[in-house]
Amino acid sequence: MNTELYCDISANYVKNYHPNLFSWIELADLINIRPLLTQERVKLLDPENRFFQWYTNGWIKDKNTYPPSLIKCLLEEMVIYFVDMSRATKKINKFASSIEDQYKCHVDAHIYVCRDPKIEHPFAAHFDISHNVIVQCEGKTNFKVWEKVEDHKVKKQIHLNMSKEKPILDVIMETGDALWIPKYYPHQAISLTPRLSVSFPFVNDENGTHEQSFEDRNWITL
Ligand SMILES: [Fe+2]
Questions:
Q1: I need a labelling partner for 126 at 20 to 30 A (CA). Which of 21, 145, 164, 182 fits?
Q2: Which range of residues forms the domain containing residue 113?
Q3: Of 156, 85, 147, 159, which is closest to residue 122 (Cα–Cα)?
């Protein structure tokens, strides 16, 4: 893995940066582990904002975990992303560790899943307050990135109408490609095929709000 992805302070795109980071098969393996599927980790981007309920048997310790079959059904009709996934696999953990080593920052991994490109992506153009490395793991996604927003007064993400602005990057990401989007750079993703990607948001933070200890990146073997 080279480091040229991050060295540019502007948005940056590298073909075939990490060709085997994560796959549909590995995602299915995760979804089958029900204790992982808490409502805090699984983010449903449901256009109808529905509320789901289910029965649990007496052995289940976390009643708020989605049944895997329900997640499979919901994946057919909405975009879902999973947070707190930086130790989901050995490869994702290693990638997160490489960013932490380079930037001395705290990294999460968010797994984005769109099983049907006809599903409208709910995120319009927006910018984030963290830097982000996005790795396309399966399928194709059109990513547009626009010039940095200079007014940082906005605390959180805002939605922007960038349709008249010319993007500084307009790329079709394929399996293994990676994109580096610094904070405050507006961006928009449009799935062109079924899509699986992992994004690594991180903050090397001038406000000092991330003073927690670093994640344990040791990958144990027995
Ligand atoms: Fe974003």
A1: 21
A2: 4-45+63-203
A3: 159
Residue 53 falls inside a structural domain: no
- Total structural domains in the chain? 1
Report how far ligand 1's centroid is from the alpha carbon of 131 (Å): 9
- How far does residue 51's CA lie from ligand 1's centre (Å)? 25
Q: What is the DSSP letter of 148?
A: P
Using an 8 Å Cβ cutoff, are 11 and 171 in contact? no
Helix spans in 48-186 (H): 68-75, 90-103
Looking at the DSSP assignment, which residues form a beta bridge with residue 132?
A: 181, 201
CA nearest 119: which of 78, 82, 173, 81? 78
Asked if residue 77 has pLDDT above 70, the reply is: yes
Query: From the CA of 96, how far away is ligand 1's center (Å)?
Result: 17
pTM of the model: 0.91
Angle formed by the axes of helices 68-75 and 24-31, to 10°? 140
126: CA distance to ligand 1 center in Å?
Answer: 6
Rounded CA-CA distance 121/124 in Å is 8
**Residue 38: CATH number of its domain:** 2.60.120.650
How does the average pLDDT of the chain come out, rounded? 88
C-alpha to C-alpha distance for 129 and 106, rounded to whole angstroms: 14
Query: What pLDDT, in 10s, does the model give residues 171-213?
Result: 999 999 999 999 889 999 999 999 999 999 987 655 445 556 7
